[in-house]
Structure formats: C-alpha cells, structure tokens
Amino acid sequence: MSDTLKAALWMSGAIFSFSSMAIAARSIALELDTFEIMMYRSLAGIAIILSIGKMVGSLSQITCRHLGLHLVRNVAHFFGQNLWFYAVTIIPLAQVFALEFTSPLWVLIFSPFLLGEKLTNTRVFASLIGFAGILMIARPGAAPLSPGLLAAAASAIGFAFSIIFTKRLTRSETITCILFYLTVVQAGLGVVFAGYDGTITIPSLTSLPWLALISCAGLFAHFCLTTALKIAPATFVIPIDFIRLPLIALVGAILYGESIDTWFVCGALLIFGGNYFNILTQTRRKTPNC
C-alpha cells in the first residue's frame, strides 16, 4: 500500500472522529453543559493515556519540565474546546467547522511573537485571504453576530494558541507527556468550572455512550491527523482534512435540517485557499532545487 493511500485512510479516521464529536456534543447538550462535557472527557482521557502509556512503556517519558508551559497551553485549549462545544449546539455545524479552519491563520499571526518565526509577505497574504472568508461567513452588519458565531471564531483563536505552545513543547517533550498534561490540566479545570455553581450533573445511561465517543474520538482524531502528516506532505493531507466541511454540512442537512448559502460556500473556499496557499508556498521553499 502506498504512503498516499495510507495517509488518505488515516485522514478518513480523523474526519469521521471530528464529525462524530460534533454530533455527540449536540446529542448531550441538553443534559450536560460544556464544562461538564470537558470534565468527563478529560477524566476518561487520563485513563486512556495511562493505560496506553503502560502498555507501550512510555509513562517514564512524563516529566515535570515546563509545567508553566503545559498550563498555558492547556488553558488555551480548554477554553477553545469549550467554545467549540458551545458553538456546535447553537449554530449550523458547517459554520463551526469553517471557522475552526481559521486556526492555522491565527497561528501565522501569533507565531512571530511566541515562536520567533518570521512574518513573511506570503503569510500576511494567506491570512488576509482567510479573514476575507471569515467576513463572508459572519457578514457583520448584514445580520446580527450570534453568540454561536462569536464562540466558533474565538475557539479558533484558542486552538491557535494551543498549536503554538504544543509546537514549543515538542522541542523537548514526547507526545505521551504532552497528552498526559493535556488531560490532567483540563480535567482539573473542568471540575472547577463545572462545579462553580455547586452542582455537577451525573450523566445518565443514555449520555454515557456519547461521552465515551467524545473522549475516544478526540484522541483518535489527533492521532490520525498526526500520523497522516508523518507519512504524506501537508499539501496532500490538508485538502483531505477540508472534506470535513462539506461532509458535516451534509450531516447537518440530513440530521438537523440545516442549510448553507452562497456566502458560506465562498467564505469557506477562501479560508481553504488561504491555508493551502501558505502550505504550498512553504513546501516549495523547503524543496531543494534539482
């Protein structure tokens, strides 16, 4: 089997997992709030990481270095993920996924300040294309900005900070170490914010399968995406990942009667174009001349 086909299969797993998370979150939104969902997801994640780590013998890789960086990274991810869970319950799923795809564009903006990377003309142009797409989807002024749209857009910023700080951590830490603190810190934050009102809802038997799906799908999706990027170029993987958008639009139409308009399609294409233009340019720069 070719590396291209292997990458496509891994990306199929990522697409299915991300889409499943959105459906599962919407299915239990009336019973559990977003903080409770994150708390239960993270507690299950701790058990999964420790079990797998013990099986493969990687628990010794968990260190106490960079605890502050782990904390900052996971606070950003926690709020980004909570905003994402909130958004999928109140606006069309396709809008949430489209705005989520702006995370790499925010990374381009913030990485010069946090990673010391150069903000090139290419990156500026790619970001402008993507933000034009955001304006087409949100259309401020043409219609009131809903809390769901604002939450989805803000979640992308939270994910961007998470990506940046993850990149810094990968310079010295292993995936097991990063995922361990991801689940532990976010479980702690989940307990604090879920219990701020003095009550934490115990999930019903009906909700347990959905919670299990969210817990497993989140970890599996990122594992699939990372594996695909290891065996195939980003210029091949990213367009496959973008299939999530029309797929979730179809799911939203079938399950929830959601519709999309021309403005959304044009905006989504611009967001994809900005991301792909940046990746294609960076790849060409790294390719040696023959």
Describe the structure.
With 290 residues, the chain is mostly helical. It has a domain at 1-31 and 203-241. 77% of the residues lie in helices and 0% in strands. The protein is built from 12 helices and no strands. It has helices at residues 3-28, 34-56, 67-90, 93-100, 103-114, 121-138, 147-169, 175-194, 208-231, 234-241, 244-256, 262-286. It is globular and about 45 Å long. The two termini are 28 Å apart. The mean pLDDT is 85.
In whole angstroms, the N-to-C terminal distance is 28 Å
Biggest sheet details: none
Structural class: mainly alpha
Radius of gyration: 19 Å
Portion of residues in helices?
over 70%
Low-pLDDT residue intervals, each spanning 5 or more residues: none
Number of helices: 12
- Give me the strand/helix succession: HHHHHHHHHHHH
Mean pLDDT over the residues: 85
Range of strand content = under 5%
**How many strand elements?**
0
- Globally, the shape reads globular
Q: What would you say about this model in short?
A:
By secondary structure, the protein is mainly α. It has helices at 3-28, 34-56, 67-90, 93-100, 103-114, 121-138, 147-169, 175-194, 208-231, 234-241, 244-256, 262-286. It has a domain at 1-31 and 203-241.
